[in-house]
Every structure is written in structure tokens, then in C-alpha cells.
Design a protein that fits this description.
Keywords: DNA replication, DNA-directed DNA polymerase, Exonuclease, Hydrolase, Magnesium, Manganese, Metal-binding, Nuclease, Nucleotidyltransferase, Transferase. By secondary structure, the protein is α/β, with parallel strands linked by helices. The protein has helices at about 60-65, 70-75, 80-90, 100-115, 130-135, 145-150, 165-180, and strands at about 5-15, 30-40, 40-50, 95, 125-130.
Amino acid sequence: MQTQIDRQIVLDTETTGINKYGPHYYSHKIIEIGAIEIIDRKLTDRCFHTYLKPNRPVEISAFKIHGISDEFLFDKPTFSNISSDFINFIKGSELIIHNANFDVGFINYELKLMKNNLQNIIEICTVTDTLKLARKIFPGKRNNLDALSERYGVNIEKRTMHGALLDAEILSNHLNMEDQ
């Protein structure tokens, strides 16, 4: 008898900014993806991490959050260059994302811009939003990663700015803390 593997991917993105007047992702691009694999509730050594050339400037407000500059991104691949590898990495998993609407919106927008057959990652994955879960557990309180880290005793000293892989690691540490 074969048991089904419980595969989860903790995922985060960083972007060029957000649109204030329509869908948050419209006209903006992903510039970093960080994804960490968990199998049967244990971290594996597998991760997917890349920086991306957005072919548009990073807004100053976004730069102040993540510190990723246009100059740094100049020679990086585009989303379309890495999309197959990324899709293959997340396919069939449960994506665990803090504020999933943000990241899923950007990923789906990138897929639509490519005019790919896949238009929505929910066609290949399930998504769990840890922000929604945190709001149920701690209603009326701050529930960003910093606040949750303080509540759960997760060390985030090395986090001076947002980073997709670093934030995915922090979130995966939260999941690990809940198992103990």
C-alpha cells in the first residue's frame, strides 16, 4: 500500500511595487521568488529561489521595503525564462503563503502576460493563506510576519529588509514551531 506524500511549498515574492488604483499587481512585476519545500511536515533541502528582471523600474516605496535595485536586476532572467522550472517545482503541492492574495495575484498576472495555457496556479496547487488563519486565531491584532514571529518566539534578527526566500524561511519556522 502506497501512502500519499504530503507536499507543501512555503512561498513568498517581492515585487516592483503595487498598483494603488486597481488590482494590486496590475502593471507591476515579480522581482524575487522564494519557495521552500516541506514533505510530510519536515523541511527538505529543496528550495526554489530566483531574482527576476522586471523590464520596468522598481518603485522607491518598494525598494525601501526589500532593497532590491534596478541595477541588481539588470542581468537576471525574466519570469518567462524561469516559469517552467517554477511551475514544475510547485505543481501538485499545497502552497502556504502569508497574504496569499498578494502573491497569487502577481503570479497569475505574470502567467497571463505570457499568454500561457496555465492562467491560475490554483489549477495546479491548493493555497493556504496563513494571514487569514492568523486573523482567525488572533482577531484584532497585528498579524504580519514580524508580529507573529514575536508571538511565536521565532528569531528574525537577520531580517533587516524583506526578502522572498528569507520571508519563506521565517514562515516555515512558524509552521515548525506549531508542530512542537
